[in-house]
Amino acid sequence: MVTVLALSAALAYGVADFLGGTVTRRATAIRALTWCVPIGLAVVLVSALLSGGSPSTGPMTWGLVAGISGGAGLITFYRALARGPMSVVAPVSALAAAVLPVGVGIAEGERLDASVLVGVLLCLVAIALVSMEADDPARAAAPRADGWRRLLDSGPVMAGVSGICFGVFFVLLKEAGDGSGLWPIVGARLGNLVIVIAALLFLAFRGGDKGPRVSGRTLIGLALLSGSLDAGANVLYFLAVHDGMLSLAAVLTSLYPAITVLLARVAYSERLRTVQRVGMAIAVAGVALVTVG
Of these four, 48, 50, 142, 162, which has the most CB atoms within 10 Å of its CB? Predict the structure, then answer.
């Protein structure tokens, strides 16, 4: 069951990212998030009310911290894309997000069967390969600082930080437990909202340009659908990680870039690079081994 739930979460995350990316082509990430995050909060709040359970301080706090970490990871990821080549940033972030939960799971005593372990390792390789996209010189046009500041603000380092934030999100939702129903996910979405509000206040204080607004029924509809699917993916991952092992659920969920890449291929006729095709094949093999195991 954990395999079905985690792969369903990957599907939902992948579609949500594709729709969110479509919105940011005409607006900006922060503008898109101001639509996606509130609707996502509404979706999980209704789901929590309908599924039973009651909010309690402990699980809600775990969820809140998880959401803050996930939101910080998203902001950091976009900053990484502005500082370094996408072909490096995306796979570094995706791998860090997947490897951290695996390490935590193993440290907590999780043991995978041989075939499942091989499948997980193949999925990790697939995540890196599928995430490799062509470089965009415009993304690296931002001014650079010198010395250690330049190193810490570089694309690969920021990508690693974003991946760690995403990995922490996966781990903390496991630690939240499932005794309070879906309320930890409500806490997580509140954490996302805190990060978005903080980013908006920061831009307002710095006088930064938030970019063009999300306008028009179609674009707003895509933003709302993206936020709803992302919230649904949170719920599916939460159910998956509490139905099985953290290491397995996190790795399978982290295959979502494959869905985004495939949708971009269909919608925008974007050609898959050879390395991405190889990654897709490896992902299929990895999922097959995990399923059989």
Answer: 162
Q: How many CB atoms lie within 10 A of CB 113?
A: 12
Structure tokens at 29: 């990430």
DSSP class of residue 272 equals P
Residues 6 or more apart in contact with residue 146 via CB below 8 angstroms: none
- How does DSSP classify residue 133? -
Residue 87 has a pLDDT of 65
Using alpha carbons only, what angle is made at residue 73 by residues 69 and 76, rounded to the nearest 5 degrees? 135
Which has the closest alpha carbon to 89: 36, 123, 136? 136
**Under 8 Å CB-to-CB from 218, ≥6 apart: which residues?**
none
Residue 185 has what pLDDT? 96
Which tens digit of pLDDT belongs to each residue from 236-274?
A: 999 999 999 999 999 999 998 888 888 888 887 878 888
Q: Which of 95, 90, 146, 163 is nearest to 125 (CA)?
A: 95
Number of other residues whose CB lies within 10 A of the CB of residue 6: 27
In which element (H, E) is residue 185 found? helix 183-206
d(CA 176, CA 196): 22
Question: Which pTM value belongs to this model?
Answer: 0.88
Percentage, residues of the chain above pLDDT 90: 46
Q: Of 80, 123, 88, 72, give the one whose Cα is nearest residue 102.
A: 123
Report, in this order, helix, strand and coil percent for the chain, each rounded to 5: 80, 0, 20
**Please, what is the end-to-end C-alpha distance for the chain in angstroms?**
12
Residue count (the chain): 293
Give the C-alpha separation, 290 to 13, whole Å. Answer: 20
CB 224 within 8 A of CB 232: no
Per the structure block, which two tokens stand in for 262?
């495939």
One-character DSSP codes across 52-98: -----HHHHHHHHHHHHHHHHHHHHHHHHHHHS-HHHHHHHHHHHHH
